[in-house]
Amino acid sequence: MRKQLLAAALALAAALPAGAQQKFTDWGWPMPYEKVSDKSVQWLKDKGWWPVQVAYQAPWSGQNTVNIVMDRQGLLKARGVETHFQAFPSGPAINEVIVSARFQAGNGGNFPFTSLLDKKIPVKTIAIQSPNLLHALVVPPDSPLKSVKDLKGSNPPATIGIVTGSSAEFYFQMALKVNGIEVGKDVILKNMPPGEQMALPKGIAGVVPWDPTPTMMVQERKNGRIIDSIFPYNMYEGQFYLRAEIVEHAPDVAQAFSDALAEATLWIRRHPDKAADLESEVPQLKNFSKAILLQQVKAYNNLYKPTYVFPHAQFWGEVNQTIFTWLHSQKRITRALTAKDFADAVDDRFMRRTFDKLGWAVPARPAFLSADWKGDPGKPPFPEYLNAINAKAPQAFPEKGDLVKPWSFAGKSYAP
User: What pLDDT was estimated at residue 67?
Assistant: First the structure.
């Protein structure tokens, strides 16, 4: 019965008369909206999950924009889903409310999501968010350090400010390993929150923050320069996930989230300035300048083709296998997780249906990898790929092979 319910929900479509032309919003979403069933709404109400509670991190570039737009533009309400979005300061804080089921939808980076898998919390990723978020080694402008290799042989050991237990730590530990640099001998890692890192206090050789902090330091404060980045060592990804019970018992609600997230991505693509304005209204982001907010929107929402949201389970599982192995070796997680554990926590059926509505082809690999990229996602360091540092311009979309049906965006129609 449950399989039949899922099949029926995923088979729903906005039926059009024969020969009728599909209508799109100005930002490229096919109309009309599909509404969730009364049965699913009642199931959520019976669970005490109405409105659906959504947790996100306000300072996390890219991910926050999508959530804010979904909320402020009423994209889930238009589909019959009542929601309450709440900002949290960190991934562990979000994990706490997801584990307790007080929140039913969340956004997690690779480290916090690994913790959920380790604890066997029933969650399903339905979309990828802000892939390849910049994490960087930032040093003072007058520092003699030119690259991470220069840390080798530091005497006394160079003190590096970092958030321990974060994706920044994994990146930096991997960079140190690849370059033959030893913690305790060449460098000392000092636990330091991003706000303190931004000030680059005296006595610190460098800090390892993630965006928007490194960009603010380099472009606005001008108190630091980047000498190394995450990109060769780890393909960072965030995920939007739901409690697995929703996927099982109310699949049309999961579909509504998938559709709304893709629509938010398109709305941001069409209105980057308005998206930055919406972000500036969030209390946790009021200290960020409009220029930085807009730069982050362009870097983490509009740089790649919008198909970046598709959750390639096998690819991201292989990327995260390296993280799983390191975390387990450091006794940070209790189980020796594998790429399959990650893939099993992904359900791409909803985004496939979303792409079908849009008329988009499901890409064979993530948008930031070229067709001739020769790297192995499970074996860093990686050959160069498109990211926020080396990109000269946003990826063009659509290009040949991106569409399977006609699609319209910003008043322009595109054919497959």
Answer: 97
CA pair distance 402, 408, nearest whole angstrom: 13
In this model, does residue 10 exceed pLDDT 70? Answer: no
- Domains annotated on the chain, with CATH: 2-132+236-414 (3.40.190.10), 136-229 (3.40.190.10)
35-56 per-position pLDDT tens digit = 999 999 999 999 999 999 999 9
The reported pLDDT for the residue numbered 8 is: 46
341, 328 contact by CB (below 8 A):
no
Residue 51: cis peptide before it, omega within 30 degrees of 0: yes
Instruction: State pLDDT tens for residues 283-328.
Output: 989 889 999 999 999 999 999 999 999 999 999 999 999 999 989 9
Rounded distance between C-alpha atoms, residue 241 and residue 206, angstroms:
34
Contact yes or no for 162/168 (Cβ under 8 A): yes
pLDDT at 1 over 90: no
Q: For position 20, what pLDDT does the model report?
A: 56
* Distance between CA atoms of residues 82 and 49, nearest Å: 10
Q: Give the strand pairing for 225-229 and 136-139.
A: antiparallel
Encode the chain in three state secondary structure. CHHHHHHHHHHCCCCCCCCCCCEECCCCCEECCCCCCHHHHHHHHHHCCCCEEEEEECCCCCHHHHHHHHHHCCCCHHHCCCEEEEEECCHHHHHHHHHCCCCCEEEEEHHHHHHHHHCCCCEEEEEEECCCCCEEEEECCCCCCCCHHHHCCCCCCEEEEECCCCHHHHHHHHHHHHCCCCECCCEEEEECCHHHHHCCCCCCCEECCECCHHHHHHHHHCCCEEEEECCCCCCCCEEEEEEHHHHHHCHHHHHHHHHHHHHHHHHHHHCHHHHHHHHHCCHHHCCCCHHHHHHHHHHHCCCCCHHHHCCCHHHHHHHHHHHHHHHHHCCCCCCCCCHHHHHHCECCHHHHHHHHHHCECCCCCCCCCCCCCCCCCCCCCCCCCCCCCCCCCCCCCCCCCCECCCEEECCEEECC
Which of 9, 56, 3, 72 minimizes the C-alpha distance to 37?
Answer: 9
CA distance 325 to 44: 37
- Mean of the per-residue pLDDT values for the chain? 93
Buried b / exposed e over 56-91, threshold 16 CB at 10 Å, is bbbbbbbbbbbbbbbbbbebbbbbbbebebebbebb
